[in-house]
UniProtKB/TrEMBL annotation:
It comes from Halopseudomonas salina. Residues 313-341 form the Doubled CXXCH motif domain. InterPro entries: ARM-like, ARM-type_fold, Cyt_c-552/4, Multihaem_cyt_sf, Multiheme_Cytochr_ET, Paired_CXXCH_1, TPR-like_helical_dom_sf, TPR_rpt. This is Doubled CXXCH domain-containing protein. Residues 146-211 form the Cytochrome c-552/4 domain. Residues 1-33, 352-372 are annotated as: Disordered.
Length: 755
């Protein structure tokens, strides 16, 4: 028998196919439709030799391989490699590849390499662990430098850290393998906390994109090559074997996107958002002009591009079977951007093309053969992820150093010419491109105004939302910014957005509604979405409806089915701590309090460092069981294990505030703020300022609020707190703050109230 995480051996797969053929021959006279099955893809090459040859040796085929002499590229000759916290030794043992490395308790273990992940520019290794788990080790092999390196070097990752290779964050069963294998199923058993994961084959094969092919093989056997089957356009597949251009980007996005799963794998023929929830262009993931910031892969940046709007798809630039570019150098771009202004496919809208020689110094202003003469270096600047993996931005922006300096985003010119003073570089750029203007209709400027709380911020959002050429993913992003600028006009925008044809916009609108709508407005706007055809939309609506009082939901006949679907999705993801946490919150909201504590315990069993569950567990002890001291103890114990986690200190401070102990609450809240870096500290600053003010330390509170408002002028909560605190003793300052709010959003309810 194969191991729980092993693919089905070819012999077993073939025997199953034979038995299935026999049963199908008996059933062929039945009216029942047999669903397609997965097959051994070696059968594909007899008819599809060219595509199969392209696929051989590709990154897709070799995305995951059993550890063997030919597949393991790293040096396992016995050398020891030290990171900033741990030492690991890479060696051979009776033919096996073994990593001697600190385990979950910090003590050395000998972990066997079961599979390789990737081939270039780095290769990772999956180690076998009890319970069917495959864990990705933090040391990777640099295939270019021929050297080991740690993916989290100088980040203090040891056995107590969530990023350690033994932790749930590095569990490949639910974090990685789905995009590295064909027909992967996690097969997680929550009762035993074990995986029995299976896949048809390691690596990304034909059926990963085209779907299970048993019906296609039957069709091919029954259809002479000279007589095409006019009655079966799908050729035996569940959907058309030729992936339509309207579907292709979503097919690729199953893996080439930053997204969250909604089930155990995906179903061919489903919309992307039936199986996944892709990220929008949020400030933590993308720059203000839409270029990539965090590790987001290609989908999000490409969906906002003018290329995508014109009908360009992935396979216009990449051979879908080999993954290689269609042409070398600038040739892949000049397929469409050429002297004839003719796109490579008739379906691509070429109205925006200009007839010119783009592969010329007259255009790129750099010597031919230099880095600056390459289209990708100017229009697809790259970023390094996983230390050495350079990935190019797919939003296809144009350089604009003046805008980049103004709005604080990256720029190809500034990135390449770092030795030139920025002002001089801008002057040179404008001299060479005197007509250079932003090509995004002012999206970057307006988004920067909205996120920066500048005068006209709300109008900037409305201006961009009014465009009829705005890519849906940008509409969703704009909609997600509306809660910072509440108004009747904003609510009307959301009411339209929940009916937008793109599901990503509908989801963003659903998530933004609670900040602007009353409970009854929220119910009435969300009720029709109970029948939405896309699962991600229904789930978003279910969660918002779950938080309404039961009496407000009364009469909503679709609610039980919505709640059941939301709950089922969480139960499909029980290997994840956040799924148990989501269930705990749903149980609390739906008067099933007896299930809350067990769900929180399950969350922490999956991930002992999942801080939201720790905090809710402490609050549950305090508020449901009326055991405030027990809640404090849980938080203090968690802080002892994770002294640098700001959310724990913040939760402790809030618990002490609720118990009337401001003296002890203030140091905890101050420590949380000190540990929280970046723009995420706004709520922490507000809470600490209120606590300081209530304890009589008014001047400290005012300074803290003023500092945070200066850092984030769009923070309405901080602004209104300052307005309130200054209204008596410094009315002029208070009025000035309100005038700034009026300039940002003249229809803000607080401004309207003053009128």
């Amino acid at each position: 028998m194969p191991s729980p995480t092993a693919p089905i051996p070819e012999s077993e797969s073939e025997s199953e196919s034979e038995s299935e053929s026999e049963s199908e021959s008996v059933a062929e006279h039945s009216t029942a439709i047999t669903p397609p099955e997965w097959v051994n893809e070696a059968q594909c090459q007899s008819c599809h030799a060219a595509a199969f040859a392209d696929w051989q040796g590709s990154h897709h085929q070799l995305a995951m391989q059993p550890a063997a002499e030919h597949s393991v590229l790293g040096d396992f000759s016995g050398q020891q490699i030290d990171s900033d916290t741990e030492s690991s030794r890479f060696l051979r043992d009776n033919g096996a590849f073994v990593i001697q490395t600190p385990g979950a308790d910090g003590q050395p273990v000998d972990a066997k390499v079961a599979y390789t992940f990737g081939i270039e520019p780095l290769q990772q290794y999956l180690l076998e662990m009890p319970g069917g788990r495959l864990q990705a080790h933090g040391m990777a092999w640099d295939t270019q430098q021929q050297a080991w390196f740690h993916l989290y070097q100088d980040q203090g990752v040891d056995h107590q850290d969530r990023l350690h290779w033994t932790g749930s964050v590095q569990n490949a069963n639910f974090m990685c393998i789905e995009c590295h294998a064909t027909d992967f199923k996690r097969n997680y058993d929550a009762a035993t906390d074990t995986f029995a994961s299976r896949w048809q084959a390691p690596g990304v094969g034909c059926q990963s994109c085209h779907g299970p092919a048993s019906g296609h093989l039957e069709w091919a056997a029954d259809t002479p090559a000279t007589e095409p089957d006019q009655q079966n356009n799908s050729m035996g597949f569940a959907t058309s074997p030729s992936i339509a251009s309207t579907e292709e980007v979503e097919v690729c996005a199953r893996c080439h996107s930053r997204r969250s799963p909604l089930d155990d794998g995906y179903q061919h023929g489903n919309a992307l958002m039936d199986d996944f929830l892709p990220s929008i262009l949020s400030a933590d993931l993308y720059e203000v002009d839409g270029k990539i910031k965090a590790e987001v892969f290609e989908y999000g940046s490409f969906k906002q591009s003018r290329m995508h709007a014109a009908g360009v798809v992935c396979s216009d630039c990449h051979n879908p079977h080999s993954g290689e570019l269609r042409a070398s150098g600038n040739g892949v771009c000049t397929q469409c951007h050429n002297s004839n202004a003719q796109p490579t496919r008739a379906a691509i809208q070429g109205g925006g093309l200009q007839a010119k020689n783009y592969d010329s110094p007259d255009h790129h202003k750099h010597p031919n053969g230099s880095p600056g003469a390459q289209c990708i270096n100017c229009h697809m600047p790259g970023k390094l992820y996983m230390t050495n993996d350079l990935r190019h931005d797919h939003s296809f922006t144009s350089p604009n150093p003046a805008q980049a300096l103004e709005l604080s985003h990256s720029d190809a010119c500034l990135g390449c010419h770092q030795q030139v003073e920025p002002g001089e570089l801008v002057a040179q750029f404008l001299a060479q491109y005197p007509e250079a203007l932003p090509r995004d209709g002012g999206y970057a400027q307006d988004m920067a105004a909205a996120r920066g709380g500048k005068p006209g911020a709300a109008a900037a959002l409305f201006r961009q939302l009014a465009r009829d050429d705005q890519p849906a993913i940008r509409v969703a992003t704009l909609v997600s910014e509306l809660p910072r600028y509440p108004s009747l006009a904003g609510l009307q925008q959301l009411a339209r957005a929940v009916r937008h044809p793109d599901p990503s916009v509908r989801v963003a609108a659903i998530n933004s509604l609670p900040a602007l709508a009353s409970e009854t407005q929220l119910r009435d706007l969300l009720a029709p979405l109970a029948a939405d055809p896309v699962r991600a939309v229904r789930l978003a609506a279910a969660w918002q409806l779950a938080q309404l009082p039961a009496q407000t939901r009364s009469g909503l006949t679709a609610w039980p089915a919505l709640r059941a679907e939301y709950e089922q999705v969480q139960n499909n993801l029980l290997e994840r701590a956040d799924a148990h946490f989501n269930l705990a919150m749903l149980y609390q909201l739906s008067s099933r309090e007896d299930k809350v504590e067990a769900a929180l315990r399950d969350a922490l069993e999956r991930d002992a460092g999942f801080f939201p569950a720790i905090i809710m567990q402490a609050q549950w002890q305090e508020q449901y069981f009326r055991l405030p001291k027990r809640g404090l103890t849980l938080l203090q114990q968690a802080i002892a294990r994770h002294p640098d986690e700001p959310s724990l200190h913040h939760a402790l401070g809030l618990a002490l505030v609720r118990q009337g102990n401001l003296a002890e609450a203030l140091p905890a809240l101050a420590l949380a703020l000190a540990q929280q870096l970046g723009s995420d500290n706004a709520d922490y600053a507000y809470v600490l300022a209120v606590a300081l003010h209530d304890s009589g330390e008014r001047d400290k509170a005012l300074r803290l609020l003023e500092e945070n408002l200066a850092a984030d002028p769009a923070n309405r909560q901080v602004r209104l707190a300052l307005v309130s605190y200054l209204s008596v003793q410094a009315p002029a300052k208070s009025k000035a703050l309100m005038e700034e709010l009026r300039a940002q959003n003249p229809d803000d309810p607080a401004v309207q109230k003053l009128r």
